[in-house]
Specification:
- The structure is a single chain.
- With 104 residues, the protein is of the alpha+beta class.
- It has one domain: 2-Layer Sandwich (Ybab, Chain: A).
- The chain is 53% helix and 17% strand.
- It has two helices and three strands, in the order H-E-E-E-H.
- It has a three-stranded antiparallel sheet with strand order 1-2-3.
- Helix 1 runs antiparallel to helix 2.
- The longest helix has 28 residues.
- It is rod-shaped, with a radius of gyration of 20 Å.
- InterPro entries: YbaB-like_sf, YbaB/EbfC.
C-alpha cells in the first residue's frame, strides 16, 4: 500500500512538472487579432498582456472616434479569446477526467 502511494505521488509530481512547463510555454506565445479588415491589430502574450496595438492611419477619423473604439475593443476581445482557447486546450489535457472545481 505504501509503495502504491509513493508511485502515485511520483506520477503527480511528473504531471505537475509537465503542467508548469506547458504553462511557461503558453505564457511565451504571441497571439494576434485584427478588426475592420486589418485596420486595427492587437497582439498579446499568453498571460493576456497586450503587447502591441497597430492602427492604420486611414481608420483614424476625428468625426467617428466611436468606430475606432469599437474596432479596438473587437480586436482586444478576439485576442483574449484566442489566449483563453489555447489555455483551455493546453492545460485541459492535464485535467481530463478529473472533476476538480476551479481548474481551467
Amino acid at each position: 500500500m505504501k509503495g502504491n502511494m509513493n508511485n502515485m505521488m511520483k506520477q503527480m509530481q511528473k504531471m505537475q512538472k509537465k503542467m508548469m512547463q506547458a504553462q511557461d510555454e503558453l505564457h511565451e506565445m504571441t497571439f494576434e487579432a485584427s478588426a475592420g479588415g486589418g485596420m486595427v491589430t492587437v497582439a498579446a502574450n499568453g498571460k493576456k498582456e497586450i503587447t502591441d496595438v497597430q492602427i492604420k492611419e486611414e481608420v483614424v477619423d476625428p468625426d467617428d472616434i466611436e468606430m475606432l473604439q469599437d474596432l479596438i475593443v473587437a480586436a482586444v476581445n478576439d485576442v483574449i479569446k484566442q489566449v483563453d482557447d489555447k489555455t483551455n486546450d493546453t492545460m485541459g489535457q492535464f485535467t481530463k477526467g478529473l472533476n476538480v472545481p476551479g481548474m481551467f
